[in-house]
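Appendix C: a fully annotated inverse folding record. The material below is reproduced so that readers can follow the format used throughout the book. The structure is listed first as tokens, followed by the designed sequence.
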């Protein structure tokens, strides 16, 4: 009996020693890591993450492609609009040129007793030319251009106003005299033709007339085809219109 009890104690002691020497799970993991093994990491589901990334990239590519298509469409519309505007502009300019044109010039045929001080022109009540004799700008101009450009076919009216000053160097009694002459000229612009109007300032009546009655303006007009350039006078176009409104 005593031997059985001693044997039982011996077995129990051996079990206790074995239990004391066996490593715990955490110690086993630590020992394996210390031995050079990589610690185990719990892996997340790789398939779901890759799927989400692929779907997001595809959506971005679609939106980018749609944006590029819209930009290209807008560029095309802008280009078409510019082209239409350029064509419209050329058509308008071409129509204006082909419709009718007018050239107007001023001719000074007065004597040295009168000095031209101012020239003013209106076409259909719109001022188209003004020049003063400041710094002698008109002293040596016997003929100069007043207007050249497109006009609408139909009736037009040209108004002219010139101002003269008596030349005291020629006749001393003329010093201080100022003569203002106004005249008008109606004309018709024909489609496809160019109208040439010459406004001629001259002295009428000769030496027997009073000086204040001499300044006057007459007009001459011709028309020619814009394209073919065949010039031809217009019957009744030349003539004197309008006497001076007054002199002072």
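Designed amino acids, in order:
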């Amino acid at each position: 009996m005593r031997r059985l009890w001693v044997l039982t104690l011996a077995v129990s002691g051996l079990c206790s020693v074995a239990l004391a020497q066996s490593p715990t799970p955490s110690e086993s993991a630590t020992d394996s890591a210390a031995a050079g093994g990589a610690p185990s990491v719990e892996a997340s589901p790789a398939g779901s993450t890759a799927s989400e990334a692929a779907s997001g990239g595809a959506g971005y590519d679609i939106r980018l492609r749609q944006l590029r298509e819209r930009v290209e469409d807008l560029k095309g519309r802008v280009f078409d609009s510019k082209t239409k505007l350029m064509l419209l502009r050329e058509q308008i300019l071409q129509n204006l040129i082909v419709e009718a044109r007018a050239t107007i010039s001023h001719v000074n045929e007065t004597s040295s007793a009168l000095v031209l001080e101012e020239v003013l022109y209106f076409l259909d009540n719109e001022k188209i030319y003004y020049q003063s004799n400041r710094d002698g700008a008109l002293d040596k101009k016997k003929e100069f251009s007043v207007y050249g450009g497109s006009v609408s076919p139909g009736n037009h009216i040209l108004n002219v106003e010139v101002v003269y000053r008596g030349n005291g160097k020629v006749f001393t009694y003329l010093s201080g005299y100022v003569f203002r002459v106004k005249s008008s000229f109606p004309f018709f612009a024909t489609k496809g033709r160019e109208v040439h109007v010459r406004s001629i300032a001259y002295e009428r009546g000769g030496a027997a007339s009073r000086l204040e009655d001499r300044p006057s303006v007459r007009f001459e007009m011709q028309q020619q085809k814009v394209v073919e350039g065949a010039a031809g006078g217009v019957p009744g176009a030349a003539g004197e219109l309008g006497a001076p409104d007054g002199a002072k």
